[in-house]
Design a protein that fits this description.
single chain; alpha+beta; two-stranded antiparallel sheet; two-stranded antiparallel ribbon
Length: 109
């Protein structure tokens, strides 16, 4: 697999300059996300992760790709109680693959 493009992670209309990244909310609709002026930061982040997972699954890296350096995988679902309400926990694990170093550096990916 080749290095993942900006569009594969953030949608077909994603662009960047030296100072900004622009993501078009409509590009994330395939995840079930509904673009609106009132979207929460949480819902936007969830849509980005769900969209990206379709193009950068962890299985692509662990399956032998050395070009892809980030993979997203589903974790084990759980039910938890907060106060008197039950919540389903739907974990997504983000794995960063780089030559061994003792610190995390975004520039390695």
């Amino acid at each position: 697999m080749a290095i993942t493009t900006l569009q594969q992670v953030f949608g077909a209309n994603a662009t960047q300059t030296s100072t900004t990244v622009t993501i078009t909310k409509a590009d994330l609709a395939s995840t079930g996300f509904t673009p609106a002026t009132s979207n929460t930061a949480d819902s936007i982040l969830a849509a980005i992760i769900a969209f990206a997972e379709t193009n950068i699954p962890d299985s692509a890296v662990t399956g032998g790709s050395t070009a892809q350096t980030i993979g997203i995988a589903d974790g084990y679902q759980q039910i938890t109680t907060i106060g008197t309400s039950q919540f389903l926990i739907l974990p997504k694990t983000l794995n960063f693959y780089s030559p061994y170093t003792s610190t995390f550096n975004p520039n390695n990916y």
